[in-house]
Amino acid sequence: MACLNLCKQQGFNMEEEKKQKREIGAYTQDGSVDRHGHPAIRGRSGSWLAGVLILVNQGLATLAFFGVGVNLVLFLTRVLGQDNAEAANNVSKWTGTVYLFSLVGAFLSDSYWGRFKTCAIFQAIFVLGLASLSLSSYIFLLKPKGCGDEKTPCGHHSTIGTALFYVSIYLIALGNGGYQPNIATFGADQFDEEDPKEGLSKIAFFSYFYLALNLGSLFSNTILGYFEDKGVWALGFWASAGSATLALVLFLCGTPRYRHFSPKGNPLSRFCQVMVAAGRKWKVEMMPGGENLYEDVRKEASQNGSRNMLHTEGFKFLDRAAIITEKDLNRMEEEDASQSNPWRLCTVTQVEEVKCILRLLPIWLCTILYSVVFTQMASLFVEQGDAMNTDLSGFHIPPASMSSFDILSVAAFIFLYRRVIHPLTARITKNPKGLTELQRMGIGLVIAIMAMVSAGVVEVFRLKYAQKDCPTSGSCTGSSNPSSLSIFWQVPQYVLVGASEVFMYVGQLEFFNSQAPDGLKSFGSALCMTSMSLGNYVSSLLVTIVMKISTRGDMPGWIPGNLNRGHLERFYFLLAALTTADLVVYFLCAKWYKYTKFEGRNGEDESCNTTMLAAELRV
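The structure assignment produced for this chain is given below.
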């Protein structure tokens, strides 16, 4: 009988073990939840079904955004009557503001709203801005009817019309900027990195995300760009508004399928707590190896999708915030608290969050100058193309549509990297990831230098074949007396910029997403967007400085209204030199960088050299 009972008990235990394994297989292991806050079921949520919906959403939203952005410089010159330098500066400032708003969206997402709610709200603002732009342009700015093409200038504009235009485009900047970093991270959330198959899909998602971004802009750069170049601005803007509306509807349709991570609270307060706690203990002696550091190891601390971070060397002053002293233990006992007061005692994870951000900053700063190169496609590349021969067998090639070669280059190099370069480097390095994100970003900088040299050489030959018989007043524009050099000589510089994007921006997205703490994932994506923002502002500043220094007497400067009288090639070569210097600094920063280390979600990682003290510790 005892043997029979023992067998029954063993059978019961085996059934329980099988049941537990089935439950583990049914639910995601990364802490994600469904829209009701319950643990996400793997087969009913996320994965590629939700991922593809987000990719389509991104493509449509990008089509809408670039339907405005790609020809904005021409709208400012032809409709609002601004000169080339002023228009280029305004486009750079506007584009910079778009990406600067990404910090706002990331903060609200990580702290309070969560990624889904943040994406929905900012997409609605984006649609509102596009609708307002379409109406204000049609009613106030495009007068007389048919103006705004290459030959017909628009008349004088009212103050209210101009004001509504700027309010509209900055609503677009707010909506798109707040949405962009969150949609990238939200898409990555749909894949459980604890599952080997979904983990690989998550890595691939960033490449396809950037591909969707570029394919979305292909239509706006070609079809919409053509109509806008012909002066049919209202049609282009309304098409953008319709695309953005469809993107929002599709995004909301996927609501039942999405996986979510709960917001982790205000990161600024956590950052300040570390600084205050470290300052209070600046005289406290540290144990070698960090043996007296505090960590919260309660099970529920890791069940909301957050992992503890392992202690790393460097920034030792900050470690003082996590030193647990006898006073801290006594205070916790007196207050009968299971957690410490974070303004006096922080966890190792909280300290490592601050260290992580401080380590990311030098890498991030080095990417800003690359964004200066990238932003030339929306401004000076277009103006350069506008001053070239844009006829092909009687058909006019809109200068802004040349960025289609950048998009095709991105698509080709993503395919080339995923199918050829990555498997080859993985085999050579014996690392499943192949090239690291930092190595890929360095390659992107090298290719960007080549792109600027190529653009400078093309400008040298454009000037060689340019018609220089302009009035002394300088009212002649490059487009009215163009160079006989074909606009298709710009193809190499667009292709090189596209190739550099695949290495730099895709690598950046992966790098910041993987290295950012779990409570700052949207902030990690926002860093990538913010580097673009500052790149645009730096570009605007460079143009202003260059024009101020190079304009002397009869010399109209390097980038005058009539490019045939300027020296745009010198500006391109200057960017190549600055990017080369940036590459050297980046190489040093990449060698110094230490990768973030996370503890396993179940706490099984034993590589930490810090003695973790449980939150419920009592004396």
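Interim note for the steering committee: The chain has three domains: 29-265, 267-354, 355-466+482-598. The chain has 18 helices and four strands.
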